[in-house]
């Protein structure tokens, strides 16, 4: 209820001004306006709350919430490095024993050691990444034009007593003459892995694609060039004494990951 006071324009001498009070009750229109105002305030409050929730969620994803972070002691970071190296050695050994799925495990571990993604890699936190000289078993510059496919792999064939022949794509391991390279050219060099369609790929590309789409996450949609590498044996086959051709087993992606793991294990101190 509102009170309205009206005063006359003038008063006579000796007379007090009269006071007229009128009580105004809210009608349907003013009630509707009040309801609209309350609804608008509720919506504004909800939108503000939702906006705060969205901002908090995005901040949480970026690690920028109000919860403080503490740096682990250097000893714990060094222990983490040795743990990752042990896991990488174990995965490499199981891969060599025939478990091809361990290529994915190696890719995830290699990414944690080497890749600058949403956070720096483990070797960066120890101040080692830019100081190390990595073992490089990729093709020499003069070899690039002569390679049909591969780069970090070999083709191994075996003949049986019955005249048949089998073959596989395998990592070079120590069957090469390696040299040393700094992190950036070693990690980002284009002339490392060559597929059967004549496309070169970097170590970074192969490690991150396998780790991101087959390892830490599984993505039903992958890059065509990576997908081709996972089933590419270089287009090679073997022909036994019986004249029968047989495609090589294995693929360029897995064998190349195994070779990158070998290079890293030869580079990073084991203790």
Outline the structure in words.
With 271 residues, the chain is α+β, with helices and mostly antiparallel strands. The chain has one domain (74-267). Helices cover 42% and strands 15% of the residues. The chain contains eight helices and ten strands. It has helices at 28-61, 74-96, 102-114, 122-125, 183-188, 203-215, 224-229, 252-267, and strands at residues 2-6, 20-24, 133-136, 153-159, 165-171, 179-182, 193-194, 200-201, 237-239, 245-247. The strands form five sheets. It has a two-stranded antiparallel ribbon with strand order 1-2. A two-stranded antiparallel ribbon has the order 3-6. A two-stranded antiparallel ribbon has the order 4-5. Helix 2 runs antiparallel to helix 3 and helix 2 crosses helix 8 (252-267).
Spell out the blueprint of helices and strands.
Layout: E1 2-6, E2 20-24, H1 28-61, H2 74-96, H3 102-114, H4 122-125, E3 133-136, E4 153-159, E5 165-171, E6 179-182, H5 183-188, E7 193-194, E8 200-201, H6 203-215, H7 224-229, E9 237-239, E10 245-247, H8 252-267
Helix pairs in contact: 2-3, 2-8, 3-6, 3-8, 6-8
Radius of gyration: 35 Å
- Our count of domains comes out at 1
Separation, N- and C-terminal Cα atoms:
83 Å
- Note the beta-strand portion: 15-25%
Structural class: alpha+beta
Instruction: State the total count of DSSP E strands.
Output: 10
């Amino acid at each position: 209820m509102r009170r309205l006071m009206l005063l006359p324009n003038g008063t006579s001498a000796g007379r007090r001004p009269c006071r007229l009070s009128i009580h105004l009750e809210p009608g349907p229109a003013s009630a509707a306006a009040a309801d609209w105002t309350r609804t608008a305030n509720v919506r504004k409050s909800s939108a503000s709350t939702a906006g705060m929730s969205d901002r908090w969620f995005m901040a949480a994803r970026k690690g920028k919430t109000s919860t403080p972070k503490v740096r682990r002691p250097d000893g714990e970071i060094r222990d983490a490095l040795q743990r990752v190296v042990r896991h990488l050695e174990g995965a490499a050994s199981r891969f060599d024993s025939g478990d091809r799925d361990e290529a994915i495990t190696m890719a995830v571990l290699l990414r944690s050691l080497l890749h600058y993604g949403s956070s720096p890699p483990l070797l960066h936190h120890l101040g080692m990444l830019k100081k190390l000289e990595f073992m490089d078993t990729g093709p020499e510059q003069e070899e690039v034009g002569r390679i049909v496919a591969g780069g970090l792999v070999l083709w191994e064939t075996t003949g049986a007593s019955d005249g048949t022949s089998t073959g596989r794509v395998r990592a070079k391991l120590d069957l090469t003459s390696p040299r040393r390279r700094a992190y950036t050219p070693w990690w980002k060099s284009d002339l490392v892995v060559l597929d059967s369609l004549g496309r070169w790929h970097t170590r970074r590309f192969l490690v991150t694609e396998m780790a991101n789409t087959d390892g830490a996450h599984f993505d039903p949609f992958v890059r065509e060039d990576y997908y081709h590498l996972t089933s590419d044996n270089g287009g090679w086959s073997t022909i036994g004494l019986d004249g029968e051709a047989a495609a090589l087993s294995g693929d360029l992606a897995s064998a190349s990951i195994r070779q990158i793991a070998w290079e890293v294990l030869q580079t990073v101190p084991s203790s």
